[in-house]
Amino acid sequence: MKCLFVLILLVGFIITPAFAQEVKNPSLIIESIEIPAEEFNRVLRDAPITLLDGIHAVSWQVTIDNNLLYANPDGNAVFRLYDQASHDEFIEIGMGPQPDNKFWVAVQTPKEGYIVIHSSLDRGWYPDAKSILTFTERAGLTVNNGVRIVVTNVDIGPFAIDSYTVHGKDGSTDPPAVNSGSMEVEFLSGDPAKNVFAFFPFYVAAGLGIIIAVLVLTKKRS
């Protein structure tokens, strides 16, 4: 009975503080943007770099909801995310028109230059699903096209998003890439280390260690 009481008491000390009140992560940033169709009817050199309201660093997720209506079979919607440290570093997502739904992911780093890390010419993205990019400094970059993971844990070094560009035409004389619609993008980021719940597994492990030690000592004395 004594051991059981100690076990309950310790578990109570471990669990109660974590759930006593709602604790928010002060580093959490949530930001949403809507990019209208006309923004994609330009070439890359004419695409302005747009700063985001916040800087998304350490650990982030970008969700892309493509609701664009394309104007021609050669049009694209290209979305680039730039690193705060240098705009020579970026992540690029390209989405082509239906019915092929071409999809590619590329990155540019100072060391490697521009590299396409995934390309699909058919059924690369899905209009009814959202494409998701996730990044952590430990795990790297992972991309889900809405149905499956197409890029897994690619090491691109530290990457803090501070801005973006969009374009859709290869040449200035090309016809419009997009007729109407919009692309909705949501950014979610934060530092897990600044969330008290991030350490909860360590608290549990420490508590279990104490419980085991108490039980061993009690058994030896008996």
Helix count, DSSP H or I runs of 4 or more residues:
2
Q: Average pLDDT value?
A: 84
CATH-level-2 architecture of the largest domain:
Sandwich
Catalogue the unreliable spans.
1-23, 197-206
Rg, Å, rounded: 24 Å
Order of neighbouring strands in the sheet with most strands = 1-12-3-8-9-10
Sheet of most strands: 6 strands, antiparallel
User: What's the CATH C level of the largest domain?
Assistant: Mainly Beta
Query: SS-based structural class?
Result: alpha+beta
Element-by-element helix/strand order? HEEEEEEEEEEEEH
CATH domain topology of the largest domain: Jelly Rolls
* % residues in beta strands: 35-45%
Distance between the termini: 13 Å
Helix content: 10-25%
Shape: globular
How many discrete domains? 2
Number of strands: 12
Can you tag this structure with a few keywords?
disordered N terminus, single chain, 222 residues, six-stranded antiparallel beta sheet, Jelly Rolls, 2 helices, 2 domains, alpha+beta
